[in-house]
Automatic annotation (TrEMBL):
One Pfam family hit: S1-P1_nuclease
PANTHER family: ENDONUCLEASE 4 (PTHR33146), STRAND-SPECIFIC NUCLEASE, PUTATIVE-RELATED (PTHR33146:SF10)
The keyword Nuclease belongs to this UniProt entry's keyword annotation: yes
Classification via InterPro entries: PLipase_C/P1_nuclease_dom_sf, S1/P1nuclease
Full protein name: Aspergillus nuclease S(1)
C-alpha cells in the first residue's frame, strides 16, 4: 500500500520549498498540541509581535513562521545566506582544496538557541521573535541532506554547492539536484499559497500525517536518542552520500527507483525534523510558566 501511495504522489506535483519547512513545523505543532500545549502557547507568544504586516501577512502563525528566513531573500536580504547550509565536503576524488564554510546552520541554530535561553522574552521582544523564526527554519534545513553536503569531483572542482550546480533532467521547473530534493522529489515543487487558507491547512496537516504515519517516534527511536545538536549533521550527511548522490550522474534523468527511494528518505527526514523541533522547544520552554 505504501508503494502505491508513493507512485501516485510522484505523478502529481503538489508544492514545497516553503511547504517542506511548514511540514516540519506542522509536525512539531501536532506533537506539542498533544504533549505540551503550554510550550506551543509560549512559542506563539514569542512569534506574535512579528505577525501581520511586519512579515507581509504571510508568516502569522507558528507553522508559516518557519518560512520567514526564505521570505526575506525576496527583499535582497542575503547577508545570512550561509546560515542555511553546512558545506561539509563529499570529496572521494581527494581534492586538496575542499573546505567547509564558516558560519553555517549549526552556528545559526546554536546562537539562536542561546538567545532564547538567555533573554527575557517580554524585554527582548524583537530579538527572541527573530531567533525563534531562525530555529523553526534551520531545523528544516538541517534535515535536508543537500543542505549539509558539498560534492567535490572532477566535474565539480570547486564543489557543487549542495547539488545546486549538479544538473539533472527532470522538468521545466527542476533542473538541478538540490531543487529535486528541496521539492521532495518533485512532489511538493509548487509553494502552498500563503497566508494558508482552509484548503492549505487541511492539505498541510494531511501531508504531515503521511510523514509521521510512515515514520513514528518508535520507528525513529535511535535517531531521537541522539540529543546533541552538533551530531545530527552526520546522519544527514551520510544520507546525502548514500542516497542523494547515489544512482545518479550529472545531466541524467532520475530513475523511478531513485525517486521512490528519495521520497521515503524525504518523509523520514521531515518527520525527524519535526519531532526534534518539538523536543527542542520543550527543552527551551518546558519549564517556563510565563514570559518572564
Amino acid at each position: 500500500m505504501k508503494s502505491l501511495v508513493i507512485v501516485c504522489l510522484l505523478e502529481v506535483v503538489f508544492g514545497w520549498w516553503s511547504t517542506g519547512h511548514m511540514l516540519v513545523a506542522q509536525i512539531a505543532q501536532n506533537v506539542l498540541q498533544q504533549e505540551n500545549p503550554e510550550v506551543l502557547s509560549i512559542a506563539n507568544q514569542i512569534l506574535s509581535p512579528l505577525y501581520g504586516p511586519l512579515t507581509h501577512g504571510i508568516s502569522s502563525s507558528f507553522v508559516e513562521s518557519a518560512v520567514w528566513c526564505d521570505d526575506i531573500k525576496s527583499y535582497n536580504f542575503d547577508v545570512y545566506n550561509n546560515w542555511h547550509f553546512i558545506d561539509k565536503p563529499y570529496n572521494y576524488d581527494g581534492f586538496a582544496n575542499a573546505t567547509t564554510s564558516g558560519e553555517d546552520i549549526l552556528f545559526a541554530l546554536s546562537n539562536s538557541i542561546w538567545t532564547l535561553q538567555s533573554q527575557n522574552y517580554s524585554v527582548a521582544i524583537l530579538e527572541t521573535s527573530i531567533a525563534l523564526r531562525y530555529v523553526l527554519h534551520f531545523m528544516g534545513d538541517y534535515h535536508q541532506p543537500l543542505h549539509v553536503t558539498n560534492f567535490w569531483s572532477r566535474n565539480f572542482t570547486q564543489g557543487d554547492e549542495g547539488g545546486n550546480l549538479f544538473p539533472i533532467t527532470f522538468d521545466n521547473q527542476i533542473n538541478e539536484l538540490h531543487a529535486l530534493w528541496d521539492s521532495c522529489m518533485g512532489v511538493w515543487a509548487d509553494d502552498l499559497p500563503r497566508p494558508l487558507n482552509s484548503d492549505g491547512w487541511y492539505n498541510l496537516n494531511m501531508w504531515a500525517e503521511w510523514c509521521t504515519g510512515n515514520n513514528t517516534k518508535q520507528d525513529l527511536a535511535s535517531e531521537l536518542a541522539i540529543k546533541e545538536l552538533s551530531l545530527w549533521q552526520y546522519d544527514t550527511y551520510r544520507i546525502a552520500i548514500d542516497y542523494a548522490y547515489y544512482g545518479i550522474k550529472p545531466n541524467e534523468k532520475p530513475s523511478e527507483e531513485y525517486l521512490k527511494r528519495g521520497w521515503k528518505i524525504v518523509l523520514k527526514q521531515l518527520a525527524l525534523g519535526g519531532y526534534r523541533l518539538a523536543n527542542l522547544l520543550i527543552s527551551l520552554f518546558g519549564q517556563t510558566s510565563a514570559l518572564s
